[in-house]
From TrEMBL:
Gene3D superfamilies: Nucleic acid-binding proteins (2.40.50.140)
Role played: Binds mRNA; thus facilitating recognition of the initiation point. It is needed to translate mRNA with a short Shine-Dalgarno (SD) purine-rich sequence.
Keyword Kinase: no
GO annotation, cellular component aspect: cytosolic small ribosomal subunit
CDD domains: S1_RPS1_repeat_ec1_hs1, S1_RPS1_repeat_ec2_hs2, S1_RPS1_repeat_ec3
GO molecular function, one term: structural constituent of ribosome
Stated name of the protein: 30S ribosomal protein S1
UniProt KW keywords: Repeat, Ribonucleoprotein, Ribosomal protein, RNA-binding
Alphabetical GO biological process terms: translation
Coiled coil: none
Domain S1 motif: residue ranges: 20-86, 104-170, 191-259, 276-346, 363-433, 450-518
Record family assignment: Belongs to the bacterial ribosomal protein bS1 family.
Organism: Candidatus Rhodobacter oscarellae
PROSITE patterns, alphabetized: S1
Length: 553
């Protein structure tokens, strides 16, 4: 009895393991998908075999293996210990991960599932969250090949109390890429020619893989000619030869070029395209200020809108030429420093004002349609899309210009005479009133100041009478109707009466005749006095005029 009491006391002195701790056990059997483990203290428990499997691998456990398990409860409903291999691995993993996080070391794990916003990663017992943005340096469309694959991760943050761990695969890749980039960049030099593979194409260029490091091939460095989009000459996956233009050692950025490996067409531009020479080119681009014409691959010139047409002013270049159209142009200027060529489209065609001047010299009659009516005259459409202007003063001999222009409407056909062609200022002056010649000048050519002419009365007014002589109209004021004041009455004349008058003035500029009956009578009196006597000899004026009248009879 004493020995039994001693053994019983000894058994009570042995502490059973505390629940919630990790204990060591021994696999004593594997059956029905479970491993039976003896954890000592006369306790056994069961663990599913899947808890012994690594991600993507089969369970690896055999009788006799010693393993660590987590003791949940000392005894369950079946009288067995409730144990877990997963929880033991998790506790072990958290200890290991906390040390790795503190030392900023990488940890190994495998992506085992997809969740909202990213993936779950098994880090050897502990489950971490991998955000979608931290999977790769570029967005990943298909993560299938990465699932279950053991690979390194970097712990970004962890909280054991909450059971949160956030990891990054991208940080590992960037670090490795940075090392690889540094090595590759160290072997590159500016001006070196290398082979690369086109990885990506954008609006502004293409990214080329040079064997672990990417370089940017800008669209302007792909060819000497204009390239609207890189896809015109490159395709993804294509191997190309490029030249290293610039390397930024700090940012590891590499600028590449393709055209630098080809001959520069600008080296022979001056000799190939002399000034004022004409060439055929293709319109490559149209803007508000002109059109670009390709003379050869790599050599483009600008036809400014002012050099596109002799006659079409203030119109969009797209209304004159179209993209891909073949056009003939003249070289106006070459600036090799700025790599610019100024071209002219209208210079390849004759100046329409010069052509008009040859076909229609001054004093030639022309016909055209009224295109526009302004406050200072009419614009008449002529051949070759050019306009001539009829000034107000050239509309009519008889009417004021402001009144004469009221007789015209847009679209009217008008005949006129060419009075001037200024090819430098691109102006053509026309005259409608000159069509029948200058009747006043013709009629006034035989009329001199002091001469006596016969006129016909055309109108009677209070202030005098209106008369006409060979198409020329004039007005005789009341004071000039007679030498005798009593006879200075307009009503003593009738329309159609013929009257002899003396010409007192011929004004070609104002196209007016100065006429006077009174001046004629005074002139006749002087002439009669000279021929038939004078008042000094005692003869009366009546006698003298009587003698003069008899002489006339």
């Amino acid at each position: 009895m004493e020995e039994f009491e001693a053994l019983l006391a000894e058994s009570f002195e042995i502490d059973t393991p505390a629940e919630g701790s990790v204990v060591k056990g021994k696999v004593i059997a594997v059956e029905a998908g479970q491993a039976i483990i003896d954890v000592g203290y006369k306790m056994e428990g069961r663990v599913d075999l899947k808890e012994f499997a690594e991600p993507g691998e089969a369970p690896n456990v055999n009788p006799g293996d010693e393993v660590e398990v987590y003791l949940d409860r000392v005894e369950n409903a079946r009288g067995e210990a409730s144990i877990s291999r997963d929880k033991a691995r998790r506790e072990e993993a958290w200890d290991r991960l906390e040390k790795a996080y503190a030392d900023e070391n990488r940890v190994e794990g495998a992506i085992v599932g997809r969740v909202k916003g990213g993936f779950t990663v098994d880090l050897g017992g502990a489950v971490a969250f991998l955000p979608g943005s931290q999977v790769d340096v570029r967005p990943v469309r298909d993560a299938g090949p990465l699932m279950g694959l053991k690979q390194p991760f970097q712990i970004l943050k962890m909280d054991r109390r909450r059971g949160n761990i956030v990891v990054s695969r991208r940080a590992i890749l960037e670090e490795s890429r940075a090392e690889q980039r540094a090595e590759v960049i160290g072997n590159l030099s500016e001006g070196q020619s290398v082979d690369g593979v086109v990885k990506n194409i954008t609006e502004y260029g293409a990214f080329v893989d040079l064997g672990g490091v990417d370089g940017l091939l800008h669209v302007t460095d792909m060819a000497w000619r204009r390239v609207n989009h890189p896809s015109e000459i490159l395709s993804i996956g294509e191997t190309i030869k490029v030249q290293v233009i610039k390397i930024n050692k700090e940012t590891h950025r590499i600028s590449l070029g393709m055209k630098q490996l080809q001959a520069d067409p600008w080296d022979s531009v001056s000799s190939a395209y002399p000034l004022e020479s004409t060439h055929t080119g293709r319109v490559t681009n149209i803007t508000d200020y002109g059109a670009f014409v390709e003379l050869e691959p790599g050599v483009e010139g600008l036809v400014h809108v002012s050099e596109m047409s002799w006659t079409k002013k203030n119109v969009h270049p797209g209304k004159i030429v179209s993209t891909s159209q073949e056009v003939e142009v003249m070289v106006l200027e070459i600036d090799e420093a700025k790599r610019r060529v100024s071209l002219g489209l209208k210079q390849t065609m004759r100046n329409p004002w010069e052509v008009f001047a040859e076909q229609f010299p001054v004093n030639t009659e022309v016909e055209g349609e009224v295109k526009n009516i302004t406050e200072f005259g009419l614009f008449i459409g002529l051949d070759n899309d050019i306009d001539g202007m009829v000034h107000l003063s050239d509309l009519s001999w008889d009417e004021r210009g402001e009144d004469a222009i009221q007789n015209y409407r847009k679209g009217d056909l008008v005949q006129a005479v060419v009075t001037e062609v200024d090819t430098d200022k691109e102006r053509i002056s026309l005259s409608v009133k000159a069509l029948g010649g200058d009747k006043f000048a013709e009629a006034a050519g035989g009329v001199k100041r002091g001469s006596i002419i016969t006129v016909a009365v055309t109108a009677i007014e209070d202030g005098g009478i209106e008369v006409e002589h060979e198409g020329m109209k004039a007005f005789i004021r009341r004071s000039d109707l007679s030498r005798d004041r009593a006879e200075q009455r307009p009503e003593r004349f009738g329309v159609g009466d013929k009257v002899d008058v003396r010409v007192t003035n011929v004004d070609m500029k104002s196209r007016r005749l100065g006429l006077s009956i009174k001046a004629r009578e005074i002139a006749e009196e002087k002439e009669a006095v000279q021929q038939y006597g004078s008042s000094d000899s005692g003869a009366s004026l009546g006698d003298i005029l009587g003698a003069a009248l008899k002489g006339d009879e």
